[in-house]
Fold each of these.
Amino acid sequence: MTEQKATNVTWHEHQVSKDERFKLNGHKGAVLWFTGLSACGKSTIANAVDYKLHLAGKHSFVLDGDNIRMGLNKNLGFSPEDRTENIRRIGEVAKLFAYSGTFALTAFISPYKDDRNKVREVLGAGEFIEIYVNASLETCEQRDPKGLYKKARAGNLPNFTGISAPYEAPENAELVLDSDNKGIEALADEVIAYLQKNGYLSA
Amino acid sequence: MTEQKATNVTWHEHQVSKDERFKLNGHKGAVLWFTGLSACGKSTIANAVDYKLHLAGKHSFVLDGDNIRMGLNKNLGFSPEDRTENIRRIGEVAKLFAYSGTFALTAFISPYKDDRNKVREVLGAGEFIEIYVNASLETCEQRDPKGLYKKARAGNLPNFTGISAPYEAPENAELVLDSDNKGIEALADEVIAYLQKNGYLSA
């Protein structure tokens, strides 16, 4: 038994580095942080980018309300404190995905500049790509696919971004998408072009 | 402008399915949940499995104290409630990795049976592989690489699993590793063999 125990220490501990993970995937990992008003198109564009990356054999994953609010963050509400913790957790998870060699596409309103900047700070240089999906409040209110703006205007949704809670637009986003005037596919292509141009699509 | 807006609705929304992600990677995703006493070898074995999977071109990622306690769960302590929330969050993140087509290897003591079973429940059939790294308290106390058992015995570590807090061993783990008598590499190979035998290593 003593002999067998000794084998525990002969195995040299290996850590697979971030770069080795990037090499296996043939591209880098990064966080693509989509931010903007409700109904601005964040989630639809993120899913379109995810689909296009997948077709090109790249590894990506969308973190959005569907898989986060029902799971990891189901114990959080919409108060300013809970929104901050919501974004903090999403940032940390997105970072893990990026380090594993995957493009983490996050689609959350993330209205507070300070919260977004904190995520930027936990990531390395070039690993946080802030994408401002810019649609006017008017456009979003016209779309209103879930009737949320209507509810908020009627005073039935406290803390609703753009109506009863603030949205702090990014000032130095890596990418600004004009969602008032361009369609989903064109905007998704702009994101892919950004990744291509900045070397993310090779290891 | 009206024409351009219309393109928003012509893009058919695609969701990349779990199976399509598995196909891209050439293998399934799953959670490999290592549980056991402090110093039983969880993290070392998980990293050895990660390394071997990586060399074989498979996608995997280790979630452990190093990247979770300093990030996602840095606002949690070691009370029973915080341990439960710690494991819940890790389970949800591991699930996201598994759904993205990656083997999520988690290396946490996770002493409570109920907490581990809750993670099992949020995952689909076959997606949660519980791996009990079985080392006797005696073995772990002899190893004691960080001097934690010594501190706990001296009464300086409240809630230390095995000494001042309980460890509830799994009764129906998918895999039990004999860490008293076998070395790291042999145990890692047992995990790989389990994945191979049960069809996880192909899509």
Note: Residues 1-9 of chain A have pLDDT under 50 and may be disordered.
Amino acid sequence: MTTLQNDIFLKALRCEPVSRTPIWIMRQAGRYLPEYRATRAKAGDFMSLCKNTDFATEVTLQPLDRFDLDAAILFSDILTIPDALGLGLYFETGEGPKFKNPLTDARSIQNLPRIDVNTDLQYVMNAVSSIKKALNGRVPLIGFSGSPWTLACYMIQGEGSRDFAKVKKVMYGQPELMHQLLDFLSDIVSDYLLAQIEAGADAVQIFDTWGGLLSESAYRDFSLRSMERIIERIKPTGVPIIMFTKGAGSWMHLIKGSGADCVGLDWTMNLGRARDQLGDNIAVQGNLDPSFLLTDEEKIDEQVARILGENHGRPGHIFNLGHGITPQVNPELVKFLVDRVHDLSFLQES
Amino acid sequence: MTTLQNDIFLKALRCEPVSRTPIWIMRQAGRYLPEYRATRAKAGDFMSLCKNTDFATEVTLQPLDRFDLDAAILFSDILTIPDALGLGLYFETGEGPKFKNPLTDARSIQNLPRIDVNTDLQYVMNAVSSIKKALNGRVPLIGFSGSPWTLACYMIQGEGSRDFAKVKKVMYGQPELMHQLLDFLSDIVSDYLLAQIEAGADAVQIFDTWGGLLSESAYRDFSLRSMERIIERIKPTGVPIIMFTKGAGSWMHLIKGSGADCVGLDWTMNLGRARDQLGDNIAVQGNLDPSFLLTDEEKIDEQVARILGENHGRPGHIFNLGHGITPQVNPELVKFLVDRVHDLSFLQES
């Protein structure tokens, strides 16, 4: 096992003091980088990029060569599991993910096949091993999955949606059926994250992109409950778990008891108040509005200072955006952000 | 002046005790009603429906004839002001609102014309007067406007958007310019709501549909600040003001000081906790997830009981959805909802 040369990300996840605030960026290997676009053009479509071990490794490392980031994240998609279940994931240019065969009724849910993540999603584990080797201990590697609720959203709706009305109709109208689907998915997501850890992931993140569409009680009973099942399965490995529900601003009291080591915050929340509510033993990750990367150095500088100020020097803060980086961003401003977070937090510490 | 036959909505807005919880439904005159679709077909496009006094009056009263609602709301659109400013509002089938001439630079913002709401938006005041007359005191009439921030979103982006990145780029990058636009719009919205009150509106609601896309500090400095300017202008009339920011779950401590008489809550918030944070002198409105209207009587019944339970009998609760009703809803279930809110809250009181 290679020793990590930079472990401040893992230390911060354990709420241990660090010399400077670690930073990584959601979707850091993405379209805003010309080298990413070049590799993607060679690979063809998005899923071919994910499924090719060499290409997936290459794009994962690209942002690390440009920026002083403190973690790498597996290049993959949040919807690999439904794809492996036969739903036929595809991407139309300029649009979000879609499924050729969405779930349409109780029967299609009950007939979902059992899968073995190590064979049916072998390409993901291959990518994890390959990236891990290529990193050679530079920084830790984050594995990830979509949350069961978020997977279910796309599996039933068949595509992105403003309100996911079809999915909510099932959830609110046939809660037992939704629980059946979410339990089924929780088991696979657990297996999937455990396999990524086995292949070398140093931390894992659960992306609950659509949890914030629910009422508080539905979030607790459907989305959070299924993530807690997963956390229980991962916990014995000792590998830290980041849970990120977009739009969870008023639910910190529920999330506090989830067992997650770190809570991802979107940009609408005051990071300091979230920490006050979560207590000293849970780290937080976030939470710059990605749109600030469309402005200039001065504006970004102000926001870095504001967010570090909200954290008030408490151990257990990982800087990140509050959502994925967008394609229009100038990479030079990303470099500025990363360096500024390091410099300013170093000054604060000393 | 006609005496109101049913004033429980206005009493609840003042946090006075009422015999049963009042209810109205955002977008209650809408496509889920066959009689609405019939009138709309006669009118042609959506804006022709808004601009024709007789048609606007007709559709405003349609839901009151079917359901035992405690308030009527002016039939209009949140984007009438930008339309009057010459931006050319239009609707494409199945899509949201769009503008032919969005704001593209500082010059286009600075060159916005001064308008007189009583002449340039006369059709709205005509509708208010006509509806008021047709209501003949049955229930109070609510006037409304989009919030300055929400108007600015559409005026700069030119259409709906997931992240309104163009708008945020202006706001975060050129805050003075954004303040200039928001101040300009705040003055017009104030004039507009005052003119609606003059024409007969018994209460007004500010729809801040996109405030929830902001960081907490940006919400405070841009969206909330401009709504507070409006509230200050309306306050002397004594007409109650409802402020509804979608996605404001973690900002109740800011909203508390806004001067609004009533705070609209989306369905993600726990209504009881929102009330705890807002205190006893501010009413709340909400907050059933509209998707429950796609289920059945039993499920709706459970949710009505849950929400009334969260309110715990406190004066100052107006039942509503957490967002507008959707076209797929069966009107029979709306009838069930309205009656159930009345029956169950009456039982709780006695």
Note: The radius of gyration of chain A is 19 Å.
